Fold this protein.
Amino acid sequence: MNQSFYKFFENIDRILMALILVLILIGLVTLASANQENMTLFTNQIINILIGMVLLIFLSNIDPKSFLFFAPHLYILSLILLLFVVFFGYESHGAKRWINILYFNFQPSEIIKITIPLMLAWLYHRYQNEIGYKIHAIGFFILAIPCLMIINQPDLGTAILIFLAGGIIIFLAGLPLKFILAGMFSFLISLPYLWSKLHLYQQNRILSLFDSDRDPLGTGYHITQSIIAIGSGGFLGKGWTNGTQTQLNFLPETSTDFIFAVFSEEFGFIGIFGIFIIYFLILYRCIDMAKKMQNTFSRLITASLIFTLFISTLINISMVSGVIPIVGAPLPFISYGGTSMVVSLIMIGIIMSLHSHKSLIAN
C-alpha cells in the first residue's frame, strides 16, 4: 500500500516542485495581505491550488504517448470551448472571456496555452521527415484560428502570448530565417492599420505608457499607482500588511494583475530579487530537463510551455512596472485565478511526465 502510494509521486521532480511551492506560498501570503477584509478569495485560491496539484501529479504519471494521441482532440475541444464563449460566455469589464460551469468560472483561452503547444508539436512530430513550407503553413493556420477568436473577445494580451508560444515551436521546427524577417517587416509596415483596429481603451493604454499624466485618473491611473507602490517599498519593504497603496485601496486589481506591486511594496527590493532568483531557477531546471529529452515531440512541447510561463512572468512584471502597456496578464503561480493557476500547474505536470518518460516516444 505504502509502496503504491509513493510510486505515484516518483515522477515528481523534487527540485522543480519545491521551487513551485515557494512561489505558491509567496502568492498566498501576498493574497492574504491584499484581501484582509474578504478571505473568500484566499479560500478559493487554496481550492484552485489543490485542483492544480492533483492534476499535476496525475499528469506526471501519464505516458507521453497519450499526449501525442490526444493532442488533435484536445485542440478541437479547446476551439469548441472558445465558440461556447461567443454564444454562452458572460461579460465582465467589457470583455466576454469566461464560461460558467457549475459553480466555477472557466476561461477557455487559458486552455489554449496548453493545447496549441500539444497540437503544433504533434504536427511537427508526425511529419518530421516532411517538414517544409507546406507544414509550416499548416502550423500557422492551426495557430491563427484560436488567436483570432481570442482577439475578438477581446483579449489582445493572451492572443499575443499564445501566438508567441506557438511561434517558438514553428521557429524551432526549422522555419527559415527569411520568413521570420519578412514577418517582422510586414508587422512594422502594417502598424498604422493595426493601430486603427485597436479598441479605444487599448489605444489609450498604449498612449498612457508614454505619458501617464495625460489621463492620471483614467487610463494612466493603474500604471501610476503601481509604480508608486513598487517604488515606496524601498530596499526592505514596508512589511507584510503594511503597504499603504494596497491597504488604502489606491492600487487596483491587487489580487490578480497587480499582485506583484503589492508584494514589492511590502517586501521591497530584497523580496523582488528573491522572486527573480526563484523564477530563474525554475527556468534553469526546466531547460536542464528538456536537454535530456530524446524526441521532437517532447522537446517542442517543453520549449513552448517554458516559453509561455516565462513570457507571462516577464509581461506581468513589465506591465506593473510601467515598461509595457497594461494587457491583463496574471503572474504565474502567484496571481489569484482558478484557470490560470490550474493551467500553470498542468504545464509543470506535462513537463515532468515528458522528462520521466523520455525514452517512451520513438522518433
Observations:
- The longest strand covers residues 95-101.
- The chain has one domain: 11-356.
